[in-house]
Amino acid sequence: MLIFGERINGMYTDIGDALKAKDPKPLQFWATKQEEGGAHYLDLNSGPAIPKEERAEAYQWMVNVVQEVSELPLLLDSTNYDAIEAGLKLCKRPAIINSVDATPEKMERVFKMAADYNAGVVGLTMDKKGIPLDNDLRVAFAMELVAAADEYGLPMEDLYIDPLILPVNVAQEHALQVLEALRKIKQLADPAPRTVLGLTNVSQKSPTSICNLLNRTYLAMAIGAGLDAAIMNANDDDLVDVAATTQILLGRSIYADSYLKVFRAR
């Protein structure tokens, strides 16, 4: 179970302000803190803080300042593929491109870029029309992503398919549909593609008092359905403990009394 730390995102005020001021300290603080919390990758997202024409330079800056304090590999998170490519050029370890939907021209750009830079890809089960309501269509989009990965020689272990969980307070039926999609996606190829969720989306705009509970419960359910990775709060100790414990109870990790410590040390 891989944890992708979500906190270096311009949607957060401290990161947005730091990006505008070119102040590395908040980015480096969260890089270090998330690594200590158990993150295996760091997601870098400029969010709306940087104008489109400045994002390539911004992603290069973000990659450089984060790599000054952390050796964790990176997810470069943007819909601006020129910005992602600018960042990929500076990554010291193979990164992951986050993300691409099943639109043919986008898949062509992203999978070729992944091949050029030895990067992984997060693929979204949607097209330019948006997130499908029909679960079978989700899986059909996943199959298109699998086919594109195969065409460009991307190993299945480097393809992370995201079936796109929506907030439970407005789309409760999607929670079960996504679990079923996770199970079906793992059957699309041998070896199977990996799966990922933007976990915090499930609790978005729910009352603060229950957000953490929703995230923790759904993470355990999703891991049981085949989830391999989550973009999540790497500093919610109880959430990370759920990830570690679920791995033990499903037999995916070897039990030791110190398994919580071992999980964070990987």
Please describe the structure with a list of short key phrases separated by commas or semicolons:
266 residues, 8 strands, alpha/beta, 8-stranded parallel beta barrel
Tell me what the structure shows.
With 266 residues, the chain is α/β, with parallel strands linked by helices. The chain contains 10 helices and 8 strands. An 8-stranded parallel beta barrel has the order 1-2-3-4-5-6-7-8, surrounded by 5 helices. The mean pLDDT is 96.
Summarize, please.
This protein has 266 residues and is of the alpha/beta class. The protein is built from 10 helices and 8 strands.
SSE topology sketch:
Layout: E1 2-9, H1 13-21, H2 25-37, E2 41-45, H3 55-67, E3 74-77, H4 81-88, E4 96-100, H5 104-117, E5 120-124, H6 135-151, E6 159-162, H7 172-185, E7 194-198, H8 208-225, E8 229-232, H9 237-249, H10 259-265
Helix pairs in contact: 3-4, 6-7, 7-8, 8-9, 9-10
Secondary structure class reads alpha/beta
Give the helix proportion (percent range). Answer: 40-55%
Radius of gyration: 18 Å
Unreliable runs: none
What value does the average pLDDT take?
A: 96
* H-E order: EHHEHEHEHEHEHEHEHH
Tally of strands? 8
- Gross morphology is globular
Strand content: 15-25%
Total helical elements: 10
Task: State the strand order across the main sheet.
Answer: 1-2-3-4-5-6-7-8
Distance between the termini: 11 Å
Characterize the biggest β-sheet.
8 strands, parallel, barrel
